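Reply to dn_fold:

You asked what the input looked like. This is it:
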Amino acid sequence: MDTLTFFTHIKDFLDIPTTILFFAVSIFLTFKTKFLQIRALPRFFSILKDGMKRKQVHNQQGDVNTIDAFHALFAAMATTIGMGNLVGPTVAIFAGGPGALFWLLLYTMLGSVTKFTEVTFAMITRERAADGHIIGGPMQYLKQISNGCALWYSYIMAVLFIGWSMVQSNTLAAIFAQENIPEWVTGAGLAFLTFIVLIGGAQRVGNIASKLVPIMFVFYIAFAFFILFKDTTALKEACWLICNCIYKPAAPIGGFLGATLCQAISQGVYRGVYITEAGLGTSSIAHAMADTQKPTDQGILAMYSMAADALLSLISGLLVLVTGVWQHGIFRSTLIYEAFKMHAPGIGQLVLIVSISLFVLTTVIGNSFNGRQTAASIVGEQAVNYYMLATVLLIFIGSMLHVVLAWLLMDILITLVAIPNLIGICILAYKRPRDLHM
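and this is what came back:
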């Protein structure tokens, strides 16, 4: 049995129980918070309105270890809005059929309250280290359940953050390779830029992410809409194809081999988790840095930030369906690039390359920063530089790896991380329901 087959069997064994767990926790928390996804909307707009008026007073007071609520939001979104939104839906459709896109979006909606819970508990349980740095996230709130559980999460998550960055590097290198740029050049450039940003600390991560996230979002959306609405008939057929495959197996089409309903649900949920990080708790690490008086307010910002993930995922999924690129060839991480190259005007291809570069850069920066925070909770600030050195080196190596095995390993690691986190937040939500009240 070769390595790829071995890890495929492990993933297949874990798929169904983990998918059920993700859905079950999101439904439990939805009822526990009395459908907060709907109830919190007025509060969300109030937070946005107040945030526009408020100045960064904490910066003037000299606290360089916190960032304002919106910079924390953008730093967290930098890890969720990224290559996953482009590649994730295409992987889901390729393996689970068009119906997988529906299940991806459904989990995004239900899982938003999971992210709210994670961020709120991260804010409540965060601590300040001896040197002033704030440490928060699942490794802190899971200590309320069990130190062993927190340690398990921290060790696996420190590895997963590096693995995510390696996948991002690999995808960007594959795209640039089609422009005749060697993979190692892309990997070296991404590793260098990540190192430069990370040595600036929390302030630099927040500042850069808050500027780049809106730019890459607008660029990608504009040209994606151009492709989608260029052929409204194909767009209608794509939407019908999604609806037709929600509750039944996807039939073979072109080069697509077909998929069962279980594959559609599993692929949709896993890619939804990969894109939004809801259920993993990872985005709560950046949110824990926020200078916010009310923990639930930061949780609400995190919850509704997933609307951007849902929109990008829907657009990416529709792009590969409308253009038909999902029906041809074997699995690859360049389907969106191919769709843009074939159907966007000349400048569209350049815009996509720039947008993808920004997507990957901000995601790798966010993942590396979160990995640094996780490592700090394990080995302390003094030894964390070794982790950062390993991160930069593996980002470079990741650009030259085989992508299929990398995705399999990421899915397995996601499962190992999610199980203690999901169980932990359910226990905390049951024991401390008042902490989740707005």
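Residues 7-53+64-431 form a domain with the Hydantoin permease fold (CATH 1.10.4160).
Hope that clears it up.
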